[in-house]
Structures are given as C-alpha cells and as structure tokens.
Amino acid sequence: MIISIASTKGGVGKSTLSIHLAHFLTQKNKTLLMDADKQETTLTWAGWRAEEEIQPYIDTQKLPPQGIKQVLEAREKQYQYIIVDVGGSDSSVLRYVLASSDIVIVPTSLSAVDRIATLDMMALIDEAKAYNEKLKTFIAFNKLSTATKEIHSIPEYQNDFPAWAYWLNSKIYERIAYRRSYATGRTAYDKIEDKVDHKAITEMNHLWQEILHDIQK
To answer: Which pLDDT belongs to residue 159?
Structure first.
C-alpha cells in the first residue's frame, strides 16, 4: 500500500507525520519511508537516526524524480507499506505520486493560508482521481494550539470541501516533543532526553489507528 503525505504548502508538518507514521507501521509491518522532497528533510532525519543506531531501524530511501511510477511499483512488491513524503509545492513529482498512491494524507492547520493550500490540494487530487480511482483522501488537522479554543472554528473551515475528502477526527497538536525529536533522529515514540511525551504518542496512535480502521473496512 502506498501512502503519500502531501500539500502544496510547506510548513504544514508533512515530514513530522511521515516519520511518525513510518515508526508506527515499522513496529509490525515491513515499511519503507521515501523522501520525494528536494530538501530531503526525512532523508536527513533518517541519516541522523542511523548514526545514533536508534531502534527500530526505519528503512528510508530517496524517491527519484524520474520513473516514479516504476520505482513505486517495484518497491510495493517488497514492502507492505510505502510512505512518501512529498515536497510542499505543485510539481510533476507530486502529481506522479498521487497517480500511484492508494491513500493521500493532507495535513493542515486552521490558518487561512493553509486552508487555501488544502483546497488547492483537493483540486489536484480530483484531477488524479480521474485516472487513479482507488485514491482515498484524508485531511488531518496538525500543529493545532493546545492553549486556545481554535478547534471551534473547524466546522467553518470545512466549508466548500468535496464530499469524498475524509476529515480525520483525530488531531495533532503543537508539542515540543515533535520539534525536539527531528533534530536527534527520533520520533515522539522514542525517549527524548530520557522522557516520553505520552500525549504526543496517544494522539499519533489515534490518528494512524483511525486511518487503518477506515481502509480495512
């Protein structure tokens, strides 16, 4: 199964969700994390993780911009799950990845700028669905503030979105654990400075379990 995590905007938390999903799935499934971003954010993170010999080992590779369909088809024969972290712009790479994915997860905050980018993504996904009918779309609220009641604006935010887009009930909040984990090749599932953020782990588990439950119906 190919799961892409994508948005036409940077800074929405694609890489954070990608590395956490890879960690979550790797515990029980043969999983590959692929970096399709020119900035190579996840590839850099994976290098730090390998240097520190942190377990579990998370298999991470670069997805080349050429021959995307063929590369993904080949990897799909070797892995149960492939997670693709796609760069934050409308590009041929993004479009080819959408054409090959079973699932796309679109992270967004509640900002007006992110909402515009998410609507742009819906248009791209709608185009992709014309020749990839199996593509299923999940929208994940990410980087929400723990100190405000901004979640009350969610119903208004969701106006004008297509009916085929599934809004995840599980939400990810802005937490120090996510920021600290990246620079050390870790995720919130790992100990960071001998501490574990149980709230971060719980919300990530709920997000991935909700997605898996839906696709396994």
So the answer is: 92
Share of the chain above pLDDT 70, in %: 100
Task: List all residues 6 or more positions away from 35 whose beta carbon is below 8 Å from its beta carbon.
Answer: 41, 42, 43, 46, 60, 61, 62, 63, 85
Residue pair 111/82 in contact by the 8 Å Cβ criterion: no
User: Using a CB cutoff of 8 Å and minimum separation of 24, what contacts does 149-158 make?
Assistant: 150/110, 151/110, 153/110, 154/110, 157/110, 157/115
d(CA 87, CA 208): 21
Asked whether 132 and 103 are in contact (CB, 8 A), the reply is no
- 210: domain CATH number? 3.40.50.300
User: How many structural domains comprise the chain?
Assistant: 1
Q: Which domain holds residue 190?
A: 2-215
CA distance 168 to 140: 6
What is the pTM (predicted TM-score) of this model?
0.95
